[in-house]
Amino acid sequence: MRLDCLLLTAATLAIGFACPPAYATTQDEALLKQQLQRLADRLDRVEKRNAELEAKLKAYVERPASKDGGVETRIQTLESYNKRLENALDTEGISEREPELASRLKAVEYNTLDIKKQATVIDSIEGFSAGVSFTSVGQRASGVDTNGTTLNYRTDIAVTTPTVKTGDIESKLFAHFRVGQGRGISQNLTSFVGPNASSFQLGTAIPPENSAVVLAEAYYRAEVPLPFGGFKPHSREKLTVNFGKMDPFAFFDQNAAANDETRQFLASPFVHNALLDNPIAANVGADGFGFSPGARVAYRNERSKSEPWGLSFGVFGAGRSADFSEGFRSPFWIAQAESTQRFGGLTGNYRAFLWQNGQAPTFLRDPSDLDTTLLRSHRGVGFNFDQRVGDYVTLFGRYGWASGEGLPFDRALALGAEIGGSYWSRGADALGIAFGANRSSEAFRNGSAGVVDAAGNPVFGFAARGAEKVAEIYYRYRVHQNFEISPDFQLIRDPAGDTGAKPVKVIGIRLQLNQ
């Protein structure tokens, strides 16, 4: 049965139920016909649409195969592209024939590798520390035959490697290069005192090498917490080991107020113990520039943080050049005990040390070569302190006693103070005042007049009778964070024990740059 017949029957039945035949009107019949006509029109349109869809479906099903092979061809194309991409990524080079995606990926990879290399370089230098300082001193002396104003300069470059940890042991390397020129006034002055400890060549009895650039220090340092194998954060004791080429005064005879010739006192007896460091016969085992190969072991106890104490022992090369060849045949050794104390809440450091030099220079001359200084065994003791006595005042003192053949002087005393500039609203400035005396030895008093050089001329030209007295005052003026200027004045009475000599006055100025 056709669909339109079914619809007509259904409509007739519906109208029949809705309106009984007995009461149907002509108007109702007209409405019914109108509705039926609409249904018939819609039915025709549906049939036409169905016919169109059936035709399109049939045409799609019966369509001829496409030229590119359809889906299979596209799949093959994608597989080929992926193969080319994989081959391109397997090679490191970049080619214009490879897929663009491969080129971009390689570019990103190369950039990443460059960044990693830069990071590796940064990691390799991370932990290194370096410092540079430049010191220049101009001095002029009166009361002594000089060639006028003397100038000298030196540059110190220090480099420390990153700390290497092996278990609880921490170790590092330290290197110190020194560049400079000039010996200062010491070469024109016969005195137990070196008026310019910052000079590049120290002017000791050991002739310094003729070099403008030296590797001053290069040594290894290791710190071992004690007890060994214990829990490091709880350790309050440590053992420090150093060996290599070093400055002995970097570890012994230190002082908070009188230790740095580039910022504090310039005269040698106020920088180090005068018996160990002097221009006539320095007893410390060091070359002409003040450095020596050696080793040091130090123990430090910090169980009382406010009052730590320590013991240290060092052995260094000695002789004419304090080198690695014969320097340890009769070496210079020194043992030191130190302690920090507090008085009224103010900190003080106290040190005592013993030393011996089996190849110490003397004022005596070798009869076979009167220009050569004889080497003899010397020994001595020393005491050293620095004590705060106010908010900005630090007192210091040094005393030394020595014995042995050919000592020019055998007693040394130095006292002084460093006063901070906060008292006059210049907190970074400082004023230093010091006095010292070096007593000529009996052998020097008896033999100084008879010491002659190779030409038979007197080396000293006088007979020593007393003690040499020296005083120094300086003012350190801070221009800015990295630049300081220090006017300096020194007075030397009875130089080298010569009571008949005129007092020597030395005026100078020091420039100091730090970076």
Explain this structure.
The chain is built from five helices and 17 strands. With 515 residues, the chain is of the alpha+beta class. A 16-stranded antiparallel beta barrel has the order 1-2-4-5-6-7-8-9-10-11-12-13-14-15-16-17. A hairpin with a 4-residue loop joins strand 12 and strand 13. Helix 1 runs antiparallel to helix 2. It is elongated, with a radius of gyration of 48 Å. The N and C termini lie far apart (110 Å). About 1% of the residues have low confidence.
Range of helix content:
10-25%
Q: C-alpha Rg, in Å?
A: 48 Å
Strand order in the sheet with the most strands: 1-2-4-5-6-7-8-9-10-11-12-13-14-15-16-17
What does the oligomeric state look like here? single chain
Given helix and strand content, the structural type is alpha+beta
Which band does the percent of strand residues land in?
A: 35-45%
Give me the strand/helix succession.
HHHHEEEEEEEEEEEEEEHEEE
Q: The biggest beta sheet, please?
A: 16 strands, antiparallel, barrel
Provide a brief overview of the structure.
The protein has 515 residues and is an alpha+beta fold. The chain has helices at residues 3-18, 26-61, 70-90, 100-125, 442-447, and strands at residues 129-142, 150-160, 164-166, 169-181, 213-226, 237-246, 292-301, 309-316, 332-343, 346-366, 369-388, 393-404, 409-420, 430-440, 467-480, 483-493, 504-514.
Notable characteristics:
20% helix; alpha+beta
